[in-house]
Write a structure and sequence with these properties.
The protein is an alpha/beta fold and 257 residues long. It has helices at residues 18-29, 42-52, 67-80, 104-131, 155-175, 193-196, 201-212, 223-234, and strands spanning 9-13, 33-38, 56-61, 86-89, 135-140, 180-187, 245-248. The chain has a seven-stranded parallel beta sheet with strand order 3-2-1-4-5-6-7, sandwiched between helices. Strand 5, helix 5 and strand 6 (180-187) form a beta-alpha-beta unit.
Length: 257
């Protein structure tokens, strides 16, 4: 692995599992350190413990749906980790639901995450600017922000992720003068813990197999697929790339079989 991250610190919002944790593992393995932001609990503790076996890692516990906890997380990041120059916004959940079935709480759940992402990013960016070393941010967007698929009704999720894509473009322009690059990845169906909440455990394998057919490359994605793309966008190998929304989707945005 390249040593692009020697001495660098990454903050991963939603870093206790899935593609966020895989990204943190790559950065730590390449000489960096990691701050994982996630809900209090064993999953977050275990993730930090695992990273600590090969490097340095910290946790910042926060439920992103709780605005008071987000404010506390901002304070902790500002006080303890103002030297972070890498940020990944990987928090999210996905529950397909027809438009007419949505209630206010369903809608708010998606946009609470966007609000938390916005202000946690603001905190980390302030540290990047004060440090004067530039930085790199990668947002985890979604293929569903680009197009709708009939078998997976996703209006509120798509709306929230489209907002994250728009934030990516805006911050890329606003922060370019500070040497801070801002990009996003847009995955299609990826087998992460997110989908464990969509399908019962005994149906997950079958559902993933069925959804594989949507992708021209014939399979759903893995956390490794997405993390590899994120790491590229964080690294100096992409030093002339900002404002990009990279489709990491098995070809689904190119067309379907």
């Amino acid at each position: 692995m390249a040593t692009d991250f020697e001495g660098k610190k990454i903050v991963v919002i939603g870093g206790a599992s899935g593609m966020g944790l895989k990204t943190a593992e790559d950065v730590v393995a390449a000489g960096g350190s990691a701050v994982l932001v996630g809900r209090t609990g064993r999953k977050l503790d275990d993730a930090v413990a695992g990273l600590s076996r090969s490097g340095t890692a910290w946790s910042v516990a926060a439920d992103l749906a709780d605005s008071d906890q987000v404010v506390e997380a901002q304070k902790q990041l500002a006080e303890d980790h103002p030297d972070a120059t890498l940020l990944v916004n990987a928090a999210g959940f996905y529950i397909p639901k027809p438009f007419l079935d949505y209630e206010v709480a369903d809608y708010d759940a998606y946009h609470d995450i966007n609000r938390a992402t916005f202000f946690l990013t603001q905190t980390v960016v302030r540290g990047m600017i004060a440090g004067g070393q530039g930085g790199a941010i990668v947002n985890v967007g979604s293929m569903w922000a680009h197009q709708a698929i009939g078998v997976t009704p996703s209006s509120a999720y798509s709306m929230a992720k489209a907002g994250l894509h728009a934030l990516t473009h805006n911050l890329a322009i606003e922060l370019a003068g500070e040497g801070i690059r801002v990009n996003a990845v847009a995955p299609a169906v990826t087998r992460t813990p997110l989908f464990e909440k969509v399908f019962p455990a005994d149906q997950l394998d079958g559902a993933m197999e069925q959804l594989s057919g949507l992708h021209p490359l014939g399979r759903v994605g893995t956390p490794r697929d997405i993390a590899s793309a994120i790491v590229f966008l964080l690294s100096d190998a992409s030093s002339w790339t900002t404002g990009a929304i990279l489709n990491v989707d098995g070809g689904i945005m190119a067309g379907r079989n």
